[in-house]
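Form P-L/3: holo structure prediction, ligand 5'-deoxyadenosine.
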Amino acid sequence: AIYVLGDHTLDLREPDRETLVALLKDETVNEELFHVADCVKTREFGNKVFIRGIIEFSNHCRCTCAYCGINARMTRIKRYRMLPDDLVDAAVHAAQTYRTVILQSGEDRFYTADMLADIVRRIKKQANCAVTLSIGERTLEEYRMMREAGADRFLLKHETANAVLYEALHGVPLETRLDAQRRLRGLGFELGGGFMVGLPGQTDETLADDLLTLVREKVQMAGIGPFIVHPDTELAGARDGDPHKTLKVLALARLLLPACHLPSTTALNVKGGMKNALFCGADVIMQKATPFAYRELYDIYPGRDAREVPLEEQYETLRKGLAELGLSAE
Ligand code: 5AD
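OUTPUT (holo model):
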C-alpha cells in the first residue's frame, strides 16, 4: 500500500526514514494519520479489543536500566518474588478471566530455565490459555526449554534503536538485545518488541529508526509507550515522554505493520491515553492480574494502577467501557 498523508507519501514496500521523520514533525497530518490507522486496525481486527492479564511475579532484577524503578541499583526498594506454586495458582486463576496470561518479571536469575519451563508446563496443563513470557534475556537453550514447555509468546522490547543511547541507558550494546529477539523468533515464539517514546536524547530520527526496527525484526506485537520519569532513578531530572507523540508513533506502527498486535501500553494508560490509543491503531489492553500484595512493589515507573479489584470485576468494568465506545472485549 501507499499512503498519502498531507505532503508525504509513505510507501509500505519501501518505508523510508525521511518520510517517517517528516510525518512525526508535521502536526497538520495528525487527524488524517489517526483516522487511517484506525481504519487499518478495523480492517484487521474489526471492533475487537484483545484483553490480556499480566502477572508481575518478581521485581528482583540484575539489570541496571537507567529509566527503570526496579533496576539492580535501587537498593532501597522492597523486593519480592513469587514461589512457583503460587505463580502457577495465580496464572490458572487469571486464566479464568483472561485468554492470555503474561508472566512478567525483572531479570531474576532465581528462576532457572528449568523452573520457568516447569511453571509454563503446569499452567498450560491446568488452564486453556496462551502464555506470554516477559522475563528478559536468556540463552538460546534456556529459551528453547520455555518454548518446548508450551510458552506461546515472548515480549522483549528493543527500548531504543539508537545504539549510543541504548548503551548509555543499559551499559550493554543494543545488539545484545536484538540477538535475543532473533533467538526467540528462531524458536517460533510469537515475538513482541517495542520501545519507549521521549527518552532523554531521543529524536524523531530515533523514533523513525525504532519503527523501522520493528519492521526489520518482523515483530508480531509491539509495545510503544511514553517514558515516565521515576524520581528515584538517575533520570530523575528528565522530562516525561509526550503521550501525543506516542499516539503518532503508534499510528505509524499500525500503518507499517497492519496485522501486528499493538497494546495501549500501561505507561500510555497512566497518561490517560488509552481511549485515544484504541482509535489510533491499538488493539490490545493489558490488565493487572498480579496478586494484590505485590502490586505496589512492582514500581517500574510512577502512577501505575495498584488498586485491589477482583479480576472478574476489573474485566467487566473494562468490557462495559469498551462497549460504550463501540468496541468488543475479546
Ligand atoms: N517509563 C516507561 N516505561 C518504562 N519501562 C521501564 N521503565 C519505564 C519508565 N520509566 C518499560 C520498558 C520495559 C517495560 C517492562 O516497561 O519498556 O520493557
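COMMENT: The two ends are 28 Å apart (CA to CA).
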